[in-house]
Specification:
Number of helices: 1
CATH architecture of the largest domain: Sandwich
Structural class: mainly beta
Shape: rod-shaped
Oligomer: single chain
Strand content: over 45%
Radius of gyration: 37 Å
Distance between the termini: 96 Å
Number of domains: 2
Largest sheet: 5 strands, antiparallel
Strand order of the largest sheet: 1-3-8-6-5
Number of strands: 20
């Protein structure tokens, strides 16, 4: 009996002297999207957003009073849109138009988020300390990445995105474990006294932004048919121009109404002059083509002029014609006002 008891005590002493050995496994979940919402081209200020991330680390059973200290690095790569984590990441449209943006570890946008622990730029670091009793234990830590689209970008209209998954999202962690007392958190994510590990494809998310179609900077010239002496035996042709600037990829249609002198419920365009108590008219028409065969009206997709913005000024020509007049119209200054509508 004495020999058996001595053997049991020896085994117990060896177990107490052995260091704690259990694997810490860390995982993370994040918001599925980082939505910037609608962004204006050449916006005077930055557009910001945040991504919420939750890290959970689990350790199997150690002892009644054991603890684990973990340092976790959340590494983010360039994303599917390309660019560089060191300068600007980019979101892209289906037509490969780009928008610069960046992810940061800090709310003041002073430290860019990188892929590598303590790299240039560095992955985001966070720490956890938790108890590991006989049934095992775990710790959870919430964090955020801060995102910014810089001001004064000239952008094309469209839906922009960049997806972060696979090798673009890496967790790296190191841990210390003790059977009694409080474990020391490792100094780096890849230098723990007990162990280190990493995992790609830790989670995935997509950064998104939308630039709405936009047109502006409209300039029109008047259409002057000139001075006419006597009658109008032949067509009088003249042109005017409309200049507009629309964001690249913005589809637009331009409508011309029938003026302010057209008879009710008709599409007749007329210039008018008032002499005494009488009003006199000259019929004219506006066209989309130089042959004056395609009337320019205001029924979308039927008799309007469509185009796609380039981001630069685009000039369109309006072709006008006064047809021959039988007899001699009363002398006077004839005019009309036509409303231009741009739909995009």
């Amino acid at each position: 009996m004495r020999l058996l008891l001595l053997g049991l005590l020896l085994v117990a002493g060896l177990l107490a002297a052995a260091p704690a050995r259990a694997v810490a496994v860390c995982t993370a979940i994040a918001d599925p999207t980082l939505p910037f919402g609608n962004v204006n081209s050449n916006a005077p200020g930055a557009t910001t957003g945040t991504l919420n991330i939750t890290v959970n680390c689990t350790t199997s059973a150690l002892s009644l009073l054991a603890t684990t200290g973990v340092r976790v690095c959340v590494g983010i790569g360039a994303g599917s849109g390309g660019g560089s984590s060191a300068s600007w990441r980019t979101m892209k449209t289906g037509t490969s138009d780009s928008m610069n943006f960046q992810l940061y570890n800090t709310s003041n946008f002073s430290q860019v988020t990188g892929l590598t622990p303590r790299g240039t730029p560095p992955a985001q670091e966070l720490t956890l300390t938790y108890n590991v009793p006989l049934t095992g234990g775990n710790g959870t830590q919430a964090t955020q990445l801060f995102a910014q689209i810089p001001a004064n970008q000239v952008l094309a209209s469209g839906a922009y995105s960049s997806t972060f998954s696979g090798a673009n999202v890496v967790l790296t962690w190191a841990w210390n474990e003790v059977l009694l007392g409080t474990a020391t958190v490792p100094a780096t994510c890849n230098g723990g006294a007990t162990g280190t590990n990493s995992a790609s494809a830790a989670f995935s998310f997509t950064a998104t932004a939308n630039v709405l179609p936009q047109c502006g900077s409209y300039v029109t010239t008047d259409m002057n048919f000139g001075n006419v002496t006597g009658g109008i035996p032949a067509n009088i042709d003249q042109t005017a121009t409309l200049t507009l600037t629309c964001l690249k990829n913005t589809a637009y249609q331009i409508s011309l109404n029938n003026g302010q002198n057209n008879p009710a419920a008709t599409s007749t365009r007329r210039m008018a002059t008032t002499i005494g108590t009488g009003t006199y008219y000259l019929t004219y028409e506006l066209y989309r083509d130089s042959a004056r065969s395609l009337r320019w009206g205001n029924t979308l997709n039927v008799d309007t002029v469509g185009g796609t913005g380039s981001g630069s000024a685009q000039q369109l020509t309006i072709y006008g014609r006064v047809p021959p007049v039988t007899g001699q119209p009363p002398a006077g200054a004839y005019n009309d006002l036509v409303q231009v509508t741009i739909t995009y």
